[in-house]
Amino acid sequence: MVSPSASETSLTRKTRVRIPSGPRVLDVELIHVLDADADPDLAARAEEGTLQVGGDTPLAEAYLWVSERRNAAYVVVPTLLCHRWAEEHGRLLQKLAPNVPMIAARAEVVIGAAGLREALERRRHREEVLEERRTAEGALKKREEELDTRAKGLDVAQQQMDAISRELRQREQDLDVRFERLREREQARLSRPAEVISEELSADDELSADDAELIEEVYDVEDDDERSEVEPTRVVDASMMIESDDADSPEFEEASEVDLDAVEEIDGDADVIALDVVEPIDDDSLSSVLLEEPDEEEPEGAVPAPPGLANDRAVQMVARIEDGGVHLYVRLKEGQGEVFGESTELLVQYVAVDSRPVVLLSLTDFSSDRPFPRRTALDPRDDEAIALLEALQDGAEARVLIYSARAKYRRETRVALGDRRANLAAIMDRARSEDGTLDAAVALERALAAAPPVNLKGHPFVDKEGARHAREALEAVERLLPWSNEEKRDMALLALSIPHGQVEGTFHQVLSDALRFGIAVPIELVARAVDEGIANDAAAFVLEAIDNFRAASSGPSLSVEAIAANWEGLLGLASELELAVATSAHDQAQRAIGKARGESVRPPPANVELSSLGDEDLAALADHPRTRLKSALELLERGGKENLRTVARVLRKMPRDEVLTLVPAMVGVGEGAADALIDGLGAKKSFVRHGCCLGLGELRLRRSIGPLLQLLRNETTDVWAEVAWSVGRFGSAAMRSLERVAKNPRGAEERVFRALAHVERASPGTLDGLDGSDERLKEALEGAREALGAAEEYEGQRAREGATGPIVAFARALDHRLTEARA
Q: What pLDDT digit, counting tens, does each position of 154-167 carry?
């Protein structure tokens, strides 16, 4: 024997020994420690199983596989010595003493090259998962930083807007004072003879600096020469100062319509509305400073404007509860005439300012291409505002009193929320959940300054007839999808005040058309279609959509690529719901997908020789209805964890007759198929859960009792009776688990009592062992004894020939197959 050797940089330790082999003596290299980082060739041989061999014979010698780079260590015990792995582990460490590598302290024992490969594969998988997690966490952290930066930017923008608003108000006040002084001077001059005025002007009585600046602003005079040519008498006629309405100039134009393409995507809280979505509050104050309107005659019976409207020309509308009804006092723009006629609607819009809720009432005239709104802001925490909003929500008709820009009464009309009453109910619910503490006056002012638009272009909630063909149905789904999440739906209902019925009607119409033409929609919208009664359940929706698309896809309206994409969406839904797709539909889908990819796809032949295929090819065939069952049976016979996982996945998609064939075959495999059967207890189809339950009851493995009891408590169909019967087959072996469940049945007391009764019938006297000191167990004992009659009757029903009912019929059919398999 040669002493162990190792390089200076490698942990590998090996010896050379001479062993007899018949008439020959072989010189063999034995590995005691393998450094996979320093000796990759030896590491490759270890995974291939050609490391510890003498000639063609494997040697029964354990060794230590280490990789400091991967922080991994394994004690590889030969397959021949697997029954004494612990002794071999200790013997190896004793042989390596005292120079045992530190990494060996956490070494895991594996059996043979196959065990080493499996352990390394698990480690590689864990490393990939950790790397994906680190990448995802990095991306999330980067996104959080971007959102934080954006929030800070919005705060800065808000502060700048506040500063501009304060400066604007100050300038308006200055203009008021300066204009009043100038008007008084001109009136004083006009009261004197023209000769005196002329003499005074000729005596170089120049305008003050403030007055000159004001006239320069009015006439847009750029230099002193032009200013000197202005006739002072023109200042007297205020109507000549500004000859057009400020609201018609680009500076004051209202953004009452906003294109959807210009709307910035909303992140985070749905109540935060991007600045380019909001429309600025209409401000007539600058023009009103310079305009002197003639006296207006009010009609007989005129209603005086309330102080809030009369004293502040920036106020657009005031809302009050008076004389038991809702009154809206509305100010028009300068020069406006007939607005707020038959095309007037009352919108109710929600804005949260620093989590402080604000409700905007927006009286809007939709008679032109550019809707005209007048708004007021209400605090939904104020008692008077709450009373007003509740009156509108109850269907009260508001009395609308319309005034000129100078608050002179003009006429009145009436308006109600109509279908937007549901919007207001949702707004009030949302407002009650907000906890912002910002001052109410500040919140109301900010909400008016950044109000949501009254007519956002590009949303899908418009009155429209149903789709005429598949392309129109697909386009409608594509328009609806961005608005199908909760945040965007809240934006439509709460901020944009699109009528609730209009939103719900659009969803119903689009989903009905999607089913009619077989257009794939996300699983969340499938659930919504079921809730609205468009389909009985999700499975029915998807299967009917597949049938409908088979016909719709043959028409000329959809492109090859659209047809393929929709087939992929439908097959994805079927897979998610574990549905068995008809063979002909599956073949048609594969042909369409292959055509879009430029491939020639043919369905697999029915007589394909499966035994000649590799595991991966066989797993691919298991997804096709024509070869699904045969492939699953072949994979089951081959065994292996990956193959059994494929069988478990395929089982969930099978129809009843295939489940009746596959489950007995899985039971025939024995304990190796238990994990696949336990996985099937979580299937969406009740008969798959039923079959797996009976299969586990046939195997009677203790580790399946827990999953069966969990299904017993959670099962939503009458299959629970079969679960209770299967648990009873375990006899007294199930009692410890049943006692734990009986102490906390979670509302499934009757089911637990039935399972205990079946156990008692399988193993008489078992119930006598229940702990009588525990109150819940005492109750369970009484309930189980009362359930003995029901358990006996159910067992008789299962055993009786010609028993009716789909569950019992399926159970009898599977029992028959299991009996044949045992024989």
A: 888 888 888 888 88
